[in-house]
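Supplementary Methods. Inverse-folding protocol.

Structures were first reduced to a C-alpha cell string of length 518. This string, shown here, constituted the complete conditioning input.
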C-alpha cells in the first residue's frame, strides 16, 4: 500500500501547495490526517507502513487506514528531510522510468533513491517502513537537549528524525533550528545559543512522524500565547500536541478546553478551527471530560463558537462557528430562528446541510418531535435528507426513539448501508446515559450478529459507528473485552471493536489521571 496510497496522499498535498491557492494544505494534513493517523498508531491494530504482507483480502482492506495513508505520507516527508528533495525527485523519476511498463516494489523504489542520494537506506527502511510505532520528541531549553522516547508497547528500534524546533515569545519567532536525532538523547548546541522562548514546539514544520511533547512551561503559556504564534503550521502542531497528550493521559483535558476558550476564537486558519472544534465536541467533551463537567464543556464550546461567529470575516469561518454553536448551544430561540432561516448570513440561508445540522441538534436536546422532523424530511427528498432525518429521529432523547432506532439498526434488512451509518452514528449522542445504558450489552451481541446480512466492509463501518464509546465505564470495557475473547467475530467487527476499545481505554485512563473536581 505504501507505494500506492501513501504516495497519492503525499503528492496530493504537495501538488496543492505548489500549484493551487491552497498553500496551507500541510496544515490541514496535520489537523485532519495526522490526527487520524496518530489514533491508528495508538491502537493495537497498528501495523508497519510497508513490508508486512496481508493474510487475506479483508486484512488488506482493513489496512486502508491512518497508517497506510497518513503515516505513509508523513514518512515520505521525513525521507525527503533525510536525503533532500532533489535526490528524492531524481530517484522517483528513475524509479518510474525503470518500471513504466511493469510492476514496482519497495526494494526497487529504495534502490532508485539510494542511487540518487548516495545513502544506504536499509536501516532507515527497517526503522520507518517495516516497524510499527511512533516516537515522542521533547525539547529541554535549559540543557539544550532533545530526547526521543518510544512507548513500551512498540518494538525498540532507533528511528532517526530530521526536524525543526521553533520558539515563540509574545507573538514573535525567537528561534528556529533544524537537526537530526538518531539516539535517545542528543544535545543541540543551537538550542543553548538561542534566546529563551515562552513556547517551544518540537517538529514545528511537521516534517516527521512523531508526537510533539511540550514541556510544562510551554503548556502553561499555551492558552495565552497560541493564537499569537504567526505560523499556522506551528499552531497546528501545538494543537495536535495538546490533543495527543490528552489521548495519552499526559495532559488534562481541561487544559485543552481552556486553550479552546482563549485561543481558538482568535484562530485564522479554517482547518485548525474546524478540526479542533469537531474533535472537542466528538471526543474531548463526551469521552475525556467527567460527566458532571460535560455540560460546562458544551457551554464553553458554545461561547467560543459565538465569539468566532460574531467576529468571522469569511463565510467558511462563519459556517464552522455556526455548526459548532448549533451543536452545543442550549439557546432554543437561536436554534428555532436558524431553523426558520431567520438571522442567518446569506451563505447559510439556502444551505440544506446546515438546516439538517440544526434539526439534529434540536432533536438531540428534545426540542423537536417526530412531526417536526418529518416536516423537514418532506421538504428534502434527497438521499442525504432521508439519512439526516433518520439520524434526527435516532437522536431524540426518549426511550421510544432509542428502541425504534436500535430495532431499525439491527433488525430491518431493508435499510441501506448509508441509512445504517446514520442511525449508528446518532444513537449514543445523549446526555441521559440511563436512556442508552441497556443497549451497551446488546451492542456486543446484536451488531456482530449482522455478519450474515452485511458485507464485511459495510459491517466494519457500522460496528465502529455503533460502538458505545460515550459510555466511558469499566462495564463497557469488560463487555468489550469479553466480546473480543470470542472466536465468532468477523474480521471487520473484530477490527472495529479493537480500535474503538482503544479509544475507550484512553478515556478511562484520562479520567483516572485527571478525576472530577469538586
Amino acid at each position: 500500500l505504501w507505494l500506492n496510497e501513501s504516495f497519492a496522499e503525499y503528492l496530493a498535498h504537495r501538488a496543492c501547495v505548489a500549484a493551487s491557492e491552497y498553500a496551507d494544505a500541510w496544515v490541514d494534513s496535520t489537523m485532519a490526517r495526522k490526527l487520524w493517523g496518530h489514533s491508528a498508531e495508538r491502537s493495537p491494530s497498528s501495523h508497519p507502513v510497508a513490508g508486512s504482507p496481508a493474510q487475506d483480502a479483508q486484512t488488506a482492506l482493513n489496512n486502508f487506514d491512518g497508517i497506510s495513508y497518513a503515516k505513509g505520507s508523513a514518512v515520505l516527508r521525513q525521507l525527503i528531510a533525510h536525503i533532500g528533495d532533489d535526490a528524492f525527485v531524481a530517484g522517483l523519476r528513475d524509479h518510474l522510468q525503470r518500471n513504466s511498463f511493469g510492476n514496482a516494489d519497495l526494494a526497487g523504489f529504495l534502490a532508485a533513491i539510494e542511487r540518487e542520494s548516495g545513502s544506504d537506506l536499509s536501516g532507515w527502511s527497517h526503522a520507518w517502513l517495516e516497524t510499527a510505532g511512533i516516537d515522542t520528541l521533547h525539547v529541554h531549553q535549559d540543557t539544550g537537549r532533545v530526547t526521543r522516547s518510544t512507548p513500551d508497547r512498540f518494538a525498540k528500534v532507533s528511528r532517526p528524525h530530521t526536524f525543526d524546533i521553533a520558539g515563540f515569545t509574545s507573538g514573535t519567532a525567537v528561534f528556529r533550528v533544524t537537526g537530526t536525532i538518531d539516539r535517545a538523547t542528543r544535545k543541540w548546541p543551537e538550542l543553548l545559543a538561542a534566546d529563551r522562548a515562552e513556547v517551544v514546539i518540537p517538529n514545528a514544520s511537521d516534517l516527521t512522524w512523531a508526537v510533539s511533547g511540550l514541556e510544562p512551561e510551554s503548556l502553561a503559556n499555551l492558552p495565552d500565547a497560541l493564537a499569537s504564534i504567526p505560523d499556522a503550521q506551528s499552531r497546528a502542531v501545538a494543537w495536535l500536541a495538546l490533543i495527543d497528550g490528552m489521548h495519552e493521559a499526559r495532559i488534562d483535558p481541561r487544559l485543552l478546553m481552556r486553550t479552546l476558550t482563549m485561543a481558538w476564537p482568535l484562530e485564522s486558519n479554517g482547518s485548525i478551527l474546524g478540526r479542533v472544534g469537531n474533535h472537542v465536541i466528538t471526543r474531548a467533551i463526551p469521552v475525556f471530560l467527567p460527566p458532571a463537567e460535560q455540560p460546562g464543556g458544551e457551554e464553553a464550546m458554545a461561547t467560543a463558537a459565538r465569539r468566532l461567529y460574531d467576529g468571522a470575516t469569511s463565510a467558511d469561518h462563519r459556517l464552522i462557528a455556526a455548526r459548532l454553536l448549533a451543536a452545543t448551544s442550549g439557546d432554543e430561540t437561536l436554534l428555532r430562528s436558524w431553523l426558520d432561516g431567520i438571522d442567518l448570513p446569506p451563505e447559510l440561508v439556502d444551505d440544506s446541510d446546515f438546516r439538517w445540522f440544526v434539526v439534529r441538534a434540536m432533536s438531540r436536546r428534545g426540542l423537536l418531535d417526530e412531526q417536526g422532523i418529518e416536516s423537514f424530511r418532506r421538504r428534502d427528498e434527497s438521499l442525504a435528507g432521508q439519512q439526516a432525518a433518520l439520524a434526527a429521529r435516532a437522536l431524540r432523547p426518549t426511550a421510544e426513539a432509542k428502541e425504534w432506532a436500535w430495532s431499525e439498526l439491527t433488525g430491518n434488512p431493508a435499510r441501506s448501508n448509508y441509512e445504517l451509518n446514520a442511525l449508528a452514528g446518532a444513537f449514543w449522542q445523549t446526555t441521559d446515559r440511563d436512556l442508552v445504558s441497556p443497549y451497551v450489552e446488546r451492542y456486543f451481541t446484536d451488531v456482530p450478529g449482522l455478519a450474515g446480512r452485511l458485507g464485511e466492509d459495510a459491517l466494519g463501518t457500522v460496528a465502529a459507528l455503533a460502538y458505545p464509546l460515550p459510555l466511558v465505564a469499566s462495564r463497557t470495557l469488560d463487555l468489550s473485552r469479553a466480546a473480543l475473547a470470542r472466536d465468532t467475530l468477523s474480521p471487520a467487527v473484530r477490527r472495529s471493536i479493537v480500535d474503538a476499545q482503544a479509544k475507550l481505554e484512553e478515556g478511562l485512563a484520562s479520567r483516572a489521571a485527571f478525576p472530577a473536581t469538586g
